[in-house]
Amino acid sequence: MDCYSLVIYKVMPSGNTYNGGKSFRWLKKRWGNLVKGAILDAGLPSGMGRIHLVIRYYFTRKCKKRSPENYPPKLLLDSFITSNIVIDDNPSYITYIMPFSDPSTFGFIDKSNPRVEIDVYPAMGKALSYGYILNDAGQPVAYGYHLSLEGQIE
Is residue 153 part of a domain? Predict the structure, then answer.
């Protein structure tokens, strides 16, 4: 299975920081341009149809109050439409997960190299539900879509 890796060397701002208006439009445009540049650098083909994303946020410090709901991937997803990778960002075309490094906090820590990494795969399944993905011990390990694998590994 082909995988395309995108890297944006910026810290994703919290949705709590930008709650609408001009500042959100500016942020959406800025991140849209960053993602479009990463799409071009990765050589992602247009017209992929359906894709699945693994989105990893790397922050400079650990924060116990950070939650995935405050880092919605909307700023990232729109660029896949405007770059003609998919035709819409609803779950029929784009599904994603955002893994955690530690169940007590969201994201990963890299003090010297904060970034957003996005692995893009051709979609393998259909979205069943959305929310926290738990390990066998019942601890959250990711946030995103639970997928059916349509004939893949069950």
Answer: no
